[in-house]
């Protein structure tokens, strides 16, 4: 199944989000699907409802970094070449 990779900017710009920066209304922290650590980077990758560090989103077979699209099968992400194997 082809999945688009979405790069999400975690730096909020609206008034409500700015309140969360100063300690009011803290949103839940995202946890990386790859390494299970909290994502505190400005950007995170969103794939199939899961959050990833940019460097953790890699093909399960060849470890190529996935930045634009990826393929999802059996709860793993793949590059196009390895998905087609």
TrEMBL record:
Signal peptide (UniProt feature, chain positions): none
Gene3D superfamilies assigned to the protein according to its UniProt record, in alphabetical order: Cysteine Rich Protein (2.10.110.10)
Localization, UniProt: Nucleus
Domain LIM zinc-binding span(s) in chain numbering: 30-85
Record bears the keyword Metal-binding: yes
InterPro entries: LIM_Homeobox_TF, Znf_LIM
Name the record gives this protein: LIM/homeobox protein LMX-1.2
Organism: Goodea atripinnis
Lineage: Eukaryota, Metazoa, Chordata, Craniata, Vertebrata
Gene encoding the protein: LMX1B_5
